[in-house]
Amino acid sequence: MQYDIVCVCETWLNDFILDNEILPGYTIHRKGRRDNMRGGGVHNVAVRNELRSSKKLLLEGEQSEPLMMELYPVNCTKPILGVFYRPPNSDVDTLKELRNSLDRLEESCQLVLVSDLNLPDIDWSMDFPSPTSQAGFKEELFCDIIADQFLYENIDGPTHLRGNKLDCVLCNVPELITDVNFVNPTDLFPSDHYFIKFDIKLCFQKAKASTSKNINLNMTPKTDQEISQIQISEYEVEQCLNNLDTSKAYGPDGIPPRLLKECSKEISPSLCSLFNKSLATGRVSVGWKQTNGISIHKKDRVEPVTNYRSISLLSILSNVLERSVFNSICLYD
Q1: Domain ranges of the chain
Q2: A Gene Ontology CC term for this entry (predicted)?
Q3: Which CATH superfamily is 5-200 part of?
């Protein structure tokens, strides 16, 4: 079976081994250990030649462990694929470098992070990992990184022949990762880690619009209702937050939609109170009326100004208020 992408840690490769000697038919992205560190920590990502990919050096940094690269699927969002290896006896700086690398990602990016952590004292039984009673600062820091980046683990069970869970397939868009399977390494290669196979769903087919004449969805505005009489419920605000597209850019307030969506239940009561106060008084927060203006290239050459269109990025909260009001003044027949 030919895989599209192969990620490997601890290969002990050196500069005397050429890329075309490693895996023919693949583009090899490599990253060796730093000069002052010992051990087999050379990272390798092999991407089938038919797929476009490039290293993201700005995300890696000069002294960081992660190998970060961008994939270029056809007509899809370009995801970031990262490979991270943490040596068993490394200090906390290795994890800090990972955190710095992930902090440089754009908020709307899709991230898949394959890692060999060597951190067995982490409890993965809940939605988000937590340190066990035997854990120390390294485990706590890693769990904080996972929570801050909204990463989800896609592996259930141990990944090492001794029964420990040392490897992870993390992603900030859970539905991207499917069909996770394990292969016993003793049948293929001398390793004490299981081989992990999984699929990355990069493209999603849009549903076609229905042309059936039996479907009739009408929205009738409540024209007899004044704006100051509208009362928005906490449930309506929470539903609007849960329906946010996390790939959208945020506005001048710098609050990303993913944060609002993940915290929808906790912040909906306060937002509901603010929204109803705004409607009752007829005043909107100044911050919600500010915009970030950017130019988007439309077509043809990039030099002429006429080939660009301007868009305004409002605060996500102002869009939530607008959607809540829209839902309140429209009846669905």
Answers
A1: 5-200, 227-331
A2: extracellular matrix
A3: Endonuclease/exonuclease/phosphatase (3.60.10.10)
Residue with tokens 């192969």: 6
In the three-class reduction of DSSP (H, G, I as helix; E, B as strand; rest coil), residue 187 is classed as: helix
Beta carbons of 70 and 78 less than 8 angstroms apart: yes
Average the pLDDT over each of 8-17, 77-86, 161-170 and give the range with the smallest value: 8-17
Could you give phi then psi for residue 193, rounded to 5 degrees?
A: -105, 145
* All residues at 6 or more sequence positions from 128 whose CB lies less than 8 Å from its CB, including other chains: 143, 146, 147
Where is average pLDDT lowest: 8-17, 32-41, 101-110? 32-41
Q: What length does the chain have?
A: 333
When comparing pLDDT for 55 and 260, which is higher?
A: 260
CA distance 87 to 90: 5
203, 76 contact by CB (below 8 A): yes
- The reply to whether the predicted model has a pTM over 0.85 is no
- For 271, phi and psi rounded to 5 degrees? -65, -40
Residues 6+ apart with CB under 8 A from 121: 131, 132, 134, 135, 136, 139
Query: Which residue type does 197 have?
Result: K
The DSSP letter of residue 230 is: -
d(CA 51, CA 72): 7
Coarse DSSP helix, strand, coil percentages of the chain, rounded to the nearest 5 percent: 30, 25, 45
236 CB contacts (<8 Å, ≥6 apart)? 272, 324, 327, 328
